[in-house]
Design brief:
65% of the residues lie in helices and 12% in strands. The protein has 32 helices and 17 strands. A hairpin with a 2-residue loop joins strand 9 and strand 10.
Length: 934
Amino acid sequence: MKISFTRVILFFVLFSVQACLQASLQAQTDSHKIADSLRNQLELTAGIAKLETYKSLIKSLRNIDPASGIEYARAAMPLADSLGTKKLKAEIRNEEAVCYRKLHIYEKAFALHLESLRDFKEMNDSAGTAFTLANIGQVHFFYKDYEQAIKYHTDALVIKEFLNDEPQIAYSQNALGTVFLEMGNLARALDYFIAALNIYDKYYMPAQTANTKANLAKVMFKLDRHEDAMRYLKEVEAVYLQAKADFGLSQVYNQMAEYLYEQGKYEEALNYLGKAKELAEKTNEKNILLYNYILRQKIASAQQDFKTAYDNLLLANKLKDTLVNERRHHEMTEIRVRYQTKQLDDENEILRLQLSQQSLRIRYIVFALLATILVLIVFLLISIVRRNRRKSRLLEITNLQLEERVEERTQELKKQMATLDQTFQSLKQSEEKFRKISETSPLGIAVTDTQGKIIFVNQNLTEILGLPKQSFIDGMWFRNILLEDRNKMDIIWQNAHKDKEGVFEAEFRIRLDQQIRHIHYKAATMFNAEEFAGIVSVFEDVTQRKNFENELVEAKNKAEDSDRLKSAFLANMSHEIRTPMNAILGFSDLLSTDEYSPEEKMEFIEMIKSSGRLLLNLINDIIDISKIEAGELKIQPSEFRLLDLMDEMLQGFRQQMDRTGKSHVKLLLTHQEELNSALITTDRLRLQQILTNLLSNAMKFTQVGEIEFGALCINGSYEFFVRDTGIGIPEQKLDVVFERFRQADDSHTRMFGGTGLGLAITKHLVELLNGKIWVESQQGKGTAFYFTLPAGSENQTFLLEDQAPHYPNLPSFKGKTILVAEDVDTNFFLIKTMLKKLNLNVLHASNGLIALDLAVEHQPDLVIMDIQMPEMDGIEAFKQIRHQNLAMPVIAITAYAMMGEEKQYLELGFDAYLSKPLSIDKLVELLRIFLQPD
């Protein structure tokens, strides 16, 4: 009997706490005054207005006196029938069903809601249908039929979304979240609570906001996110403080105290319990005080303050009797309503009972006779028992003593078993929670012991880092971290196990399948009671985010550079067009007057012609670059004597230099004897355009000295050159002079004009003619442009088709290892193909970071290092290798082979230099130098 009574009390307390936390602020206002006002108004109204008053009155009574609400609903039904207001009748029936639900008469509530749902559907009333579906979902929720509750709440939510009724949408989302919370599906519950909270915040609905945040606190606490749970309860506290809702505040403080007690923060919990007790005593809320005393007793027991625990237990027991009486009163009200309902349902049975009254009287007489006989038999049995009682009394006393001793011992054992079982269940639940979290978490999770050894990893960690589970257990996973980050991670890892307090965060990079992954790492310490038990580490793959950030930076730089180039180009074009146009228009105006002599006018005409030629050249450049980009520039090859073209260029530019006042600058055509019988098959016009652009540039930038041009026949091709002693090009500008709209001087204060298209057109024309072009220059000393063209179509295909590749006698380097750092797969495949018969062990690194790690890990006999690579270029990787005191030979390789570049790389410390395209003869020759063949 004692155990049953305790369960009843605990059930009542938990039910009261649940109901109070979910109550809105509107329900905490003076509802009795509102109900009294509506009762008075009921006497003064009639017709539809009176029916509306009935509905409002029943709605106000459903939380404070649901039994009265049911009585008013019954009184309203005849009026609704007489007025023929089907909708109002369905709404009142819905409110009546809610009153039954408040009295836990769920079967009657369910029937009334279904009847209202039928009426609303017949009227095509979407809002009423949605409201009723939500109420039916609540009935299923109290029945713990969660699947049906989800179905009805979801149907209601669909209709509300169609009606775009956001407050009602939020209500259904909150209700669905409560169902999923009870089912233990915390992720779904969290999604619905957050969605509802966003709507309540939007419409500033503090009561509903507080309710939803209280639900969120429960989810956070079940997820062991205690800080987030407390944060939400703090926000609920703020709402209750603003509304001066002492009842709600006392509930929130009790809940905060419970969360803090679960975390072992006893003093903070007692502080909130003090606030809750003060408010509960003020509002005379006994259930709050009872829960308060129970929490105080648990905290005192945990602190081993058994006297305080005993005192609080006594206070709790005193309140239990009062609460039980109140509960009995509530049950009596419920029974009264059930009785009244039953009485209405049984009115049809009265006639049947009256008809069978005579039969019942006969049965009563027979029953009375049987009862009399039974009494006599019982009297005889009692007499017999009394006779034997004296004989067995002594034995009974002895048995009672033994039974008392056995009962006492049994109770002690039960208490011990209950304590052990509670501890076991708590540990089992904690283990299950952690397992579920680790399985469903998108992050990698690892747990270590006090010595830093990993004892648990989830499946996501092996997928994120791409390593088998055993590598974490064995501690070998650290080897995959890049060398630059390994020491940093080792220090953080050790500190996390030594400091034993706080949270540790870092980012590191890991090498996996020739790729670099960026990992964000976070660790927190664990304690068992007061003893350090290890750390929990969380790993997140942030490679995509890092790559996105790098792409954003690159895109930003490109956009800024493009904008700058566009501005410079527009400024140049404006200057280049307006300058000759100004001369044309100006001198044209002067020609129209009679104030100048014929000789002066002839000079004006020459100026106009010169400016016109400048504009024509500018237009031709723009047309050419447009045709080149569109792929519409056609090549028309023909065979001609090269010396004829070179002589034309010499005579034409000599005259042009005389006209521009540069007759003191020498123009030389060298190596003419080698061109006497030279024939070339190419597009004569385009070759003339290339030489014109280069000579025009040389003439523009050369004020003193000489300009030299010519051609040499080298290995079946012609190498053309244009050298000058002009101002030269800065070294940092050599890489961009062939780009569109780019010049050595892009500023607005530059001394020389031009659009920046000439050299870009020249480069495209050379490439269209199957040649290549390059430039060498020293600032202040001069510039030399070189380009090559094939002598003819037969020579053009000789190297590709007729000439068989020559391979030297290949040596064997068995047992030797070469590391090839090359980011382009085709280039690596070419090198690997060249070396496949040399018996070499070839390692591949796709960037400088991986090359550094492989060099440290495998220490190869030789490294072939490409200069241009992502993540880390070849020069920086070479410096890091030497910084690690690794002395293996390192050969630089690059496709940007310029004059003097070999010297530059050798001065940096590289052991040798190779330029692309690679020659197998040169490669084998270098391998013979640095590696000893078998």
